[in-house]
Amino acid sequence: MEETAKAEEKKIGMTEAWLRKHRLVYIGATRHPFILSIRDGSINIDSYKTWLAQDYLFVRACVPFLASLLVKAWKESDEDGDMEVILGGVASLEDEISWFKREANKWGISLSDVVPQKPNINYCRLLESLVSPDVEYTVAVTAAWALEVVYQESFAHCIEEGSNTPPELKETCARWGNEAFALYCQSLQKIANRRLQKASDDELKKAEVMLLSVVEHEVEFWNMARANV
Ligand SMILES: Cc1ncc(CN)c(N)n1
């Protein structure tokens, strides 16, 4: 790698360097038409309901993934604090699942009848592949950060000044757009950067490919919500 690029990455961290390198792909996820339609108030509520029902299934699939990340942190991490950060993420999933149940109830959605759609199946499959002990902690934590930060940046955009988000969707946006969730994402990013700094070229390559794969799956997930209206 070119020396200046190396120095730049040291200063800003590898994850930030990758987000800059793949900016258009990242913007494609965080400023997706689904998100923009929430922000400008033009959202078709059926697409919101599709997203809600499908995301409930996705969040359930996040539980074993994050639990496996906790195991990797326990076995592979060089810092005690990593486990606390990830444990906080695992613990918050219980509240998140309860929220999905309440929100689905509010919109008359029967979650037990929801059938996972192809983009969701594909994304859950990716999560399941990360559970394997063969996947390095560095690669898995990069994936965890990427999938959370896309939601954080997307939904924060819907509650920024100048947004016209429908009042009934503001609570949803605040779930991922709030400051505490942003701090959780920053903690995951710090872990990822620390690990990536010490990673081999092979691991770095795998983590960068994983970041891109996660972001592409996020785009497909938003596309799915809009395709069903
Ligand atoms: C598809 C998706 N990506 C990320 C998140 C944030 N945990 C989520 N709930 N759903």
From TrEMBL:
<dbReference type="GO" id="GO:0009228">
    <property type="term" value="P:thiamine biosynthetic process"/>
</dbReference>
<dbReference type="Pfam" id="PF03070">
    <property type="entry name" value="TENA_THI-4"/>
</dbReference>
<keyword id="KW-1015">Disulfide bond</keyword>
<feature type="domain" description="Thiaminase-2/PQQC">
    <location>
        <begin position="21"/>
        <end position="226"/>
    </location>
</feature>
<keyword id="KW-0378">Hydrolase</keyword>
<dbReference type="GO" id="GO:0050334">
    <property type="term" value="F:thiaminase activity"/>
</dbReference>
<dbReference type="InterPro" id="IPR050967">
    <property type="entry name" value="Thiamine_Salvage_TenA"/>
</dbReference>
<protein>
    <recommendedName>
        <fullName>aminopyrimidine aminohydrolase</fullName>
        <ecNumber>3.5.99.2</ecNumber>
    </recommendedName>
</protein>
<comment type="similarity">
    <text>Belongs to the thiaminase-2 family.</text>
</comment>
<comment type="pathway">
    <text>Cofactor biosynthesis; thiamine diphosphate biosynthesis.</text>
</comment>
<keyword id="KW-0784">Thiamine biosynthesis</keyword>
<dbReference type="InterPro" id="IPR016084">
    <property type="entry name" value="Haem_Oase-like_multi-hlx"/>
</dbReference>
<dbReference type="InterPro" id="IPR004305">
    <property type="entry name" value="Thiaminase-2/PQQC"/>
</dbReference>
<dbReference type="GO" id="GO:0005829">
    <property type="term" value="C:cytosol"/>
</dbReference>
